[in-house]
Write the structure tokens for this entry.
Amino acid sequence: MKHQLWNYMLIAATVLSTTESVQAQIPSMRYQLDMSQPHTHLFEVEITLDGLAKNEKTVDFIMPVWRSGRYVLFDFAGGVQEFSAEANNVTLPWRKTDKSTWRVENNGGAKVTVRYKVYANEFEQRTRGLNDRHGFVDASAVLMYIEKLRRLPLQLHVQPFGDWHVTTGLEAVAGQQNLFRAPNYDYLADCPLEIGTHKDFDFAAEGKPHRLMIYGEGNWDAPKMIEDLKKIVKACREFWGELPYEHYTFMLHCTPAGGGGTEHINSTIMGTRPYIFREPASYRGFIGLAMHEFFHTWNVKQLRPAGIMPYDFTKENYTEELWLAEGGTDYYTMMLTRRAGFNTVDQMFEALATLIRNVKARPGRNIQSVAESSFDAWVKLWKNLPNAFNAEVDYYEKGEQVSLLLDLEIRQRSENHASFDEAMRALYKKFPLGKKGYTNADVQKAAEELTQSSFAEFFRDYIYGKKEIDFAGFLGYAGLEVIEKKRDNVAPDLGILVVPTGERSIIRRVTAGSAAQAAGLDLGDELLALNGKRVRSSDLNERLKDYKPDDKVKLTVFRDEQLREFEITLQAAAPDYQVQRVKEPNALQKKIYSLWLGSEWPEEKTADGKD
Ligand SMILES: [Zn+2]
């Protein structure tokens, strides 16, 4: 595709150099976005092209099939209606050539205008939304592109509804209201727009202008959030060494459905529930979200896996590296929130224990590698398949785990003269945006260059393989130990996840290898009774506390309207894990600990009070 474009630009340049055509030029592209009736959820789009080459008889307008940040296909084209095309007030014929392509017959004319509407009612996907309160646009879900013109500059004019205003990472055209420009379509698609009566708060951080935009009511405290966002900007700038943008916009939707975020080139769109900002634990969740999205400004928006550089908006973009793009971002979210002082060391240990608990609970770790999980994101992770827990790993969570291992392994082998931080920075320098992306082999090479030793086995075992992770061994490098604890007062384990659904309690997950699976329980079974007495999801756990491991119980369920009974031998609940410092650390352990966690090893006082 790149070659096609260069050909196009060469043709344009050649035409320019001939006497034949003084007016032949690089075509201009202007998008117009209207929203005259927001309660209908319909955006009105107009795209005007001018200066098209005479030898082109048709122009293909393409709606992307995915948006960056979520590696799954969407049906954006499905929301398009009332498409039309004209030039100089003459209607042009068009037809669709595939689900996402509208081919307009301009017959060599220099100018083409197309108009269409887009039904936008999916704010929670962070793709497109419009209602009588506000509008949100990720251009890949609303604005079509022309492949041959995709790398040319363009303008977007927005006509907000009523007294609404626009907030976006796009550059505004000086002196023009709501007129923005982008160097190319990919940039436009990486600068979402919020249109409404939201609040904007400008602030400076690390010498550059930043903006916090908040849509929605809630118990947020903008000055406090800004102070914390400044710490996030500082932590990331110190990590990467620079800010790769001129200005940055944090966009926040506070809505009951809120949850999650998407990174963009110089902005992020985040969603939270409105009243999470007072309670320290839930506020830390918001800080983690902001740190994750902001860290992405480098890791995945600049430093990109080869498979998503450049984006192909027409189909799946395969990559085996999402474990680093996402899981690595999760790992550094944990590390930088610690180093920036948002979490205590004890909270970090608890986060590590949770990570260990999660990996050990998930049977999918024995079925799928994290490279496979990355590659198959398009057909597995984002599809929430019913068997995901048993057959998949999550490239976020497993990616975080292997990033942790890589960091500790590099620190151990280099006697803490190097770290994964440096590997990330080396990759960032080596793979600048717009050139080529990196592969797992490049990540392996970066680790090897820092340690002058082979990481072939590491990548074989943990990236491409499913080797059980020895957390105790790796954490031991930093003077930590993992204590396996038997849990008191916990019910024996059945191995099912029961979810209340109206009045009914439905089995939504049967863990592979569990007592429930061995006994024959199935997804969709409606739980009715335990040993002949009514049981519901809300009291199942409490009822199981009456029993011990190896006890036999009878579960009665409805399956396809048939009453069925299963006898189950209960298993002991999984142990709990605790991460703590070893009693007698050596010098290297203390050194790794302090540089890794950004906190000195605490020297405990001896019994007689002397240090
Ligand atoms: Zn992410």
